[in-house]
Amino acid sequence: MPINKILTALFILFIAPVSQAELEKATFAGGCFWCMEEPFEKLNGVTAAVSGFMGGDLTNPTYKQVSSGGTGHLEVVQITFDPKKVSYEDLLEVFWRNIDPTDADGQFVDRGAQYATAIFYHNEEQKKSAELSKNKQENSKRFSKPLVTPLRPAMTFTPAEQYHQDFYKNSTKKYKYYRYRSGRDDFINKVWGKDKVYKPIPRQPINK
After folding, report:
1. Which of 193, 200, 155, 191 lies closest to 39, judged by CA?
2. What secondary structure, in 3-state letters, does 142-180 show?
3. CA–CA dist 113, 37 (Å, integer)
């Protein structure tokens, strides 16, 4: 193969941006969205993790409205990912390792339905994967109580205000203090131990 074609192929494979049409969305509610951005943004293949709201009927809710508990929305993180690099099943593995799926009334220090957990599936394939993943966690007996995290169809996503985005990077001290006091890490360490950080196996390109 001529050298110019080799260079072009390498550019497309490693450098050229992925078409938006090739990217997919995943949406998870795991309590405080500050804590849910970080583990997903660190994954190879995730191009964005945006804090926001989903699940209620109010159009364009604000953080103040959602946090009051009166809108029906949950705090969520919406992930944009390249399925050629990281699978939806990998995202689910990360999700379970960062929440308490046995708590129906909130997450850790944050109480109320707006902080409950949920998997918002975007299509039937995601729904089936989420069902299998939840069954896997239930059968593992890792958790001492039944899993109550529901599977719900995705609804309108509203991004949270800008100061909430990338909070773990832009307000590091406040984030670390909140996270330390929240009880989230204590729970994760107790339940998952050495398995608390999930490392996806790099996906192999499909040869056609």
Report:
1. 200
2. CCCCCCCCCEEECCCCEECCHHHCCHHHHCHHHHHHHHH
3. 20
Q: Of the candidates 208, 179, 173, which has an alpha carbon nearest to the alpha carbon of residue 31?
A: 179
Number of H helices and E strands in the chain, helices first, is 8, 8
C-beta atoms surrounding 137 within 10 Å: 18
- pLDDT tens-digit profile of 48-92? 999 999 999 999 999 999 999 989 999 999 999 999 999 999 999
Query: If DSSP codes are grouped into helix, strand and coil, which group holds residue 189?
Result: helix
Q: Are strands 106-107 and 110-111 parallel, antiparallel or unpaired?
A: antiparallel
User: By C-alpha distance, which of 46, 65, 47, 48 is closest to 56?
Assistant: 65
pLDDT at 202: 79
Q: What is the pLDDT of residue 13?
A: 45
Given the structure tokens 């990998």, which residue do they identify?
A: 90
Interatomic CA distance for residues 119 and 130, integer angstroms: 7
Which are the contacts of 22, defined by CB distance < 8 A and separation ≥ 6? 82, 83, 84
In this prediction, residues 166-193 reach a mean pLDDT of 96
Q: What angle do CA 114, 88, 159 make, to 5 degrees?
A: 40
Higher pLDDT, 141 or 10: 141
Catalytic residues: 32
Task: Tell me the pLDDT band of 201, cut-offs 50, 70 and 90.
Answer: confident
Q: List for the chain the helix, strand, coil content (%; round to 5).
A: 40, 20, 40
